[in-house]
Amino acid sequence: MADLLEQLQARVADRYRLDREIGRGGAATVYSARDLKHSRIVAIKVLRPELGIGTERFLREITLVANLRHPHILPLHDSGEAGGLLYYVMPFVQGESLRERIAHNGPLPFQLALEITQEVAGALDYAHRMGVVHRDIKPANIMLEEGHAVVTDFGIARTAESEDTDNLTAPGLTVGTPTYMSPEQVNGEATLDRRSDIYSLGCVLYEALTGSPPFKGATPLAVMAQRLAGPPAPIAIAHPDFPAVLDDLLFKALAVEPGDRFATAAEFGQALAVVAAGSDPELALVSADRAAVRLRSIAVLPFVNMSADPDNEYFTDGITEDVINALTKIAGLRVAARTSAFAFKGKDADVREIGRRLNVGTVLEGSVRRAANRLRVTAQLVDVADGYHLWSEKYDRELDDVFAVQDEISCAIVERLKGRLGSTAGGALVKPQTRNMEAYDLYVRGRYFWNQRGAGLLRAREYFTQALALDPEYAPAHAALGDTYNLLGWYRVLAPRDAFPVAKAAAERAIALDDTLAAAHTSLAFSLMCHNWDWKAAEREFVRAIELNPGYATTHHWYSEFLMAMGRPTEAVESAERAVQADPLGLIIKIVLAMAHYFALNYDRTIEICSATLATDRSFTPAHIWLGLAHMQLGHHDRAVDVFQREHDLAPERPTTLALLGVAYASAGKTDEAEGILRQLKEAATESYVSHFDLALIHLFLKRRETAVEQLERAYEERAAWLTWAKVDPLLDPLRSEPRFRALLGKMNLA
């Protein structure tokens, strides 16, 4: 080999100065060298002349490798032929190979092994989609650089679709390593597809976890004999602490028949991600199906406002929401809810992390630049498995074309993902609901403030009202106004009689204009539930909304509250869980799950969910409410007082927070404190709305049952929203035998 080094050095002396041999395999020898032009250390791989690869063939295939651009694939700097020697140049990796790591330290820690395998799976999936099969995945070809995997030695890969009849497996020279070869590779099949690499990666993961490959033998045939004898020894035998499902995934990757393996490396990696995250093992057992679902999913991240005016943020958010709403119309495509997607606004998060947290396979990113009546929108669709673009486009249009741009973006995504979605209905996804651009501008301003909740609801009401003044036929604006009044009534900003009837009328108007708006049916259902107590009509509207848009998290959220009120706790929990699936990062969505468990009398689970939510946001008031109520039901009176005191400190302007503190004091036997809060609430009632339901609870826990019932009857007259759960609310259990209370339930159609 010294002669080979001297020969190569003489032929590339003008470009590289070779140093020493750093590795040798069945197909090539690797040297470290200095790139004289760029003053950097590189690695030069020289193919063995015995392989008999022609120069033309080599240069053709190395061109494929040169076009691979992936964070976990070692890039190609240069390649060539020098006096009959074929070589290519790569970066010199400052690190050790996975082979060296296992040899020096033994098996990898569980999480690290899974992370490295996922990274390699992402690299392979990218290469496979580029038409390249590696053919020699093994620990020696996986370098560890700063804790991450980098796949090397794509230099002898062949294209998956190649019909070249040249045979890389000449007598006595086998491309690949027997220990990690797939059965079809050992059999010398001329065409290998991506499933061969998946098999080899399964061998690598097995060795990374155990320190030894799944099958060993002195020759390829000896290894093959072991494979045909059955699967390898289960990892669970030596490592009972590992998830048992891990063996199922390995056996699937190591199946003898290619058709029994994972269809893609991405599916293998995503199944491992489920295990690494500690999720339900059943998810991983059907990982291929679930991974396919993940590939049919997308998160539309908040588009970036590139306008000179920062106040155009509302307009940019509006375009993002419109694209989200358009994509929810696609059958088979799961779209992350706005709340979860907007959790990443302004954050420099890696798309792979976003994909993991939102459980989606693709991410849409974009930007909006608005100047006078001109609009520039850029968008790019990214595969979270490898971080690479599937599609990108730029649109320069007039402002009046905003709906057309949204539709073109949505249709382009569907076109790009149609292989994953199967057949999809044609036609426009975004239909202009107004031709008045000023009305649209006011509408998106209103949505911007509506999403902020709190005082933003009042500003949202103003903008929606102004938009409708310009275009009374604007259906989405009517639906949005309905949602606004629903929340103003729910949060007690307005008295129920001043909020819910307006919400109902707005939702009915929206439906009259466009019966396909799921949001409008959901808004109508909520007002029918909370104010009219028309349970049959409310459920009919919820079911219709779900038919129109199964992925709309708010429908499942509010329907869960309906099911709680009906005394159907199992269904309520299931509906809340569907809401969480649609909006995994939405804090209020998590709290509806806590509520469902509260009304199912599972108070420990309620406390667990609320505590986890508060770990994310200590100021999230709804989490304090249901945490405190759960502690009360468990008899943790001092804890309940502490929780409600913190809640009141966060929102002292809200009578409800003060009322719940009064209830906690009364339940803890602190009568004087409870009486003091009653006086404060009566004073507040002279200036703002205070619900008689809140007063009733304090009286009830001060053991004044008759007064409590009187207050509940007044709450019925005012249509207090929290009476919705009177049938199942454990706080009202002391009144179940009271005739007047039973009569009250009868009037609410809850008897």
Describe this structure in words.
With 751 residues, the protein is of the alpha+beta class. Helices cover 54% and strands 12% of the residues. Strands 11, 12, 13, 14, 15 and 16 form a six-stranded mixed β-sheet that branches. The protein has a five-stranded antiparallel β-sheet with strand order 1-2-3-5-4, with helices on both faces. The chain has a three-stranded antiparallel β-sheet with strand order 6-8-9. A hairpin with a 2-residue loop joins strand 14 (362-371) and strand 15 (374-383). Helix 26 runs antiparallel to helix 27. The termini are far apart. The model is unreliable at 159-174 and 280-293 (pLDDT under 50).
Summarize the structure.
The chain has 751 residues and is an alpha+beta fold. It contains 33 helices and 16 strands.
Task: Describe the main β-sheet briefly.
Answer: 6 strands, mixed
Mean pLDDT comes to 84
Number of helical segments? 33
Task: Specify the structural class.
Answer: alpha+beta
Overall, the morphology is: elongated
Strand content is 5-15%
- What is the first-to-last residue Cα distance? 92 Å
DSSP helix fraction: 40-55%
**Stretches with pLDDT under 50, minimum 5 residues:** 159-174, 280-293
| Radius of gyration over all CA atoms, rounded | 32 Å
List the helices and strands and how they pair.
Blueprint: H1 2-12, E1 16-24, E2 28-35, E3 40-47, H2 55-66, E4 78-82, E5 85-91, E6 96-97, H3 98-105, H4 110-129, E7 132-133, E8 142-145, E9 148-151, E10 158-159, H5 183-186, H6 194-210, H7 220-229, H8 235-238, H9 245-253, H10 265-276, H11 281-285, H12 287-295, E11 297-300, E12 304-305, H13 313-327, E13 334-335, H14 338-342, H15 351-358, E14 362-371, E15 374-383, E16 388-398, H16 402-421, H17 437-450, H18 456-470, H19 475-490, H20 496-513, H21 518-532, H22 535-548, H23 553-565, H24 569-582, H25 587-599, H26 603-616, H27 621-633, H28 637-650, H29 655-667, H30 671-684, H31 692-701, H32 705-718, H33 739-747
Parallel strand pairs: 11-13, 11-14, 12-14
Antiparallel strand pairs: 1-2, 2-3, 3-5, 4-5, 6-8, 7-10, 8-9, 14-15, 15-16
Helix pairs in contact: 4-6, 4-10, 9-10, 10-12, 13-16, 13-17, 17-18, 18-19, 19-20, 19-21, 20-21, 21-22, 21-23, 22-23, 23-24, 23-25, 24-25, 25-26, 25-27, 26-27, 27-28, 27-29, 28-29, 29-30, 29-31, 31-32
